[in-house]
Design brief:
The complex is a heterodimer of chains A (313) and B (314).
Chain A (H helix, E strand, L loop, with lengths): L3 H13 L18 H28 L3 H6 L12 H8 L10 H32 L5 H11 L4 H15 L5 H26 L2 H9 L4 H12 L1 H17 L2 H6 L7 H9 L8 H22 L1 H10 L4
Helix pairs in contact in A: 1-2, 2-14, 4-14, 5-8, 5-11, 5-13, 6-8, 8-11, 11-14, 11-15, 13-14
Chain B lengths: L3 H4 L25 H6 L1 H21 L16 H6 L3 H32 L6 H13 L2 H11 L6 H7 L16 H26 L3 H9 L4 H12 L1 H16 L3 H6 L11 H11 L3 H27 L4
Helix pairs in contact in B: 3-15, 5-9, 5-12, 6-9, 7-9, 9-12, 12-15, 14-15
Classes of the chains: A mainly alpha (313), B mainly alpha (314).
Amino acid sequence: MSNPGTLAVAVAGADALRGSFDGPRGPKPRVTFSRRNIFIYGTLIFAAIYYLIPLYVMIVTSLKGMPEIRLGNIFSPPMEITFEPWVKAWATACTGLNCDGLSRGFWNSVRITVPSVALSIAIASVNGYALANWRFKGADIFFTILIVGAFIPYQVMIYPIVIILREMGLYGTLKGLVIVHSIFGMPILTLLFRNYFSSLPEELFKAARVDGAGFWGIYFRIMLPMSLPIFVVAMILQVTGIWNDFLFGVVYTKPDTYPMTVQLNNIVNSVQGVKEYNVNMAATLITGLVPLVIYFISGKLFVRGIAAGAVKG
Amino acid sequence: MPESVATTPTPNPSPQGGGAAATARPSRLFRNLNAKVASIPMILTAMVVFVGGTGWTILHSFTNSRLLPRLNFIGLAQYERLWTTPRWLVSIENLLIYGSLSLIFSLLIGFMLAALLDQKIRFEDTFRTIFLYPFALSFVVTGLVWQWLLNPDFGIQHVVRGLGWESFVFNPLYDKDLVIYGILFAGLWQGTGLVMCLMLAGLRGIDEDIWKAARVDGIPMWKTYLFIVIPMMRPVFVTTLVIIASGIVRVYDLVVAQTSGGPALASEVPAKYVYDYMFAAQNLGQGFAASTMMLLTVAIVVVPWAYLEFGRRR
């Protein structure tokens, strides 16, 4: 993505910045090196470099040894590549008394994310289906409350949920956190599924009704198989959202069950000991890797997901 | 969005619900029973957590609850204390600076990038992927990366000094007056990709004929954008604005990761105030009052929008 060639173009583009942004004169310009093109590509490449620098610095820092970091500059590539920081971040970095690295947080996050994603999607898809095809009196009122609720700052509802979970005996457990994620994922996912199911042809639903299929029959045999893409979108949305969560993790779990983001923050921002920046960056990168991989693999579907999930903020 | 339900005809089979028809007349309550049972989680979430929880917090913000919530009402005392606490005032000031600048710049940068990507360019997908990837990362990761980049001893300041400019100072995270701008840098890096995506979708929704007409009339491109396209994109801008604004009020993890509220409380934000008073300072009443103020802030943004967006159609 950022090969040396792009840098040269960026420098060339910097000159063109002085030229005014006149827009196209006449039909589509066919010339490759028109001033307009140099301006457009120059700006875009300049911006792309700005966006890529943090990722680049993260990678480079995590592959250097501490002596090299103290002497060199953060942008220079490592003279001697070492994977030790990665190993240390994963297996032996300390948070408080635990010295088993990020691996603990990673597995906690997995144990939080998988059931949360499954549960929240199961609930929300059935909700959306009921709202789209089986509306009962009052359903829209609850739905409106749900959507308005998506705008309420979480801080307002945090403490009442602590009380509810404590009463259920789930406060501080992974199960409790799974419930919290399912609750807060519900507005946006329900909206997503409701809109999708409403867009399916009505005749399909009617035909199934005539053939005697009921609520669950239609859901499992017609709606589910027809809406795999939207399930994938919902999954991308939830996996990245839940993996990246910090607030709920810190409120509803204990140090033993902290998700990865919370543990990462504790490792990097701990005040004791000598700061090992390479280990910190390796840990940061490892934590960011899961959503990044999902992002790069899913491409357009991710865009669809966030366009729908933008409300979540 | 909920209002669209009223206008679009949706299949509503409930009158024939219960299809079996063996029973004489099923009572109203049991009609469409499966859908009602399936909606129980949604109803519970809406009523118990969203309505109930919000009401509970607002109610308890008028009490003197400390370690445990208690219904011992003391009127507006918590709010009076809140608005005389320097830390809260700093938090609000930071939120205003961060919020307004982040709104302006993310809209500006997001729109610029979207407009550039919309010029029928090559490698559009590559550029979009690059601009959007930070959005996939968590605020904690974002905060920690920028903490490292802005580190005075190793980061950008150190590199520029190494180039020979010895007196160069770029040390926002350790400067009380500048720290919020350091957070803004990170926030913009993470969030502008999303704005760009929403803007690009909006630009793609503009009829191609408008561009042709403008070109025939010889209107320069920037004028077309400024006076024709942007006014046409009003709904997209408004929606984006609401989305960014409601996200800004919640900003928490970014600050915790990047500065932990420092140096000396200079980068505190309301969400952090709430958390610290509820779970660290054991002063629940303050936490409830502060979170109610946050709710009020969001309401000031969202209610007029919802009214304009949905109320008018009635």
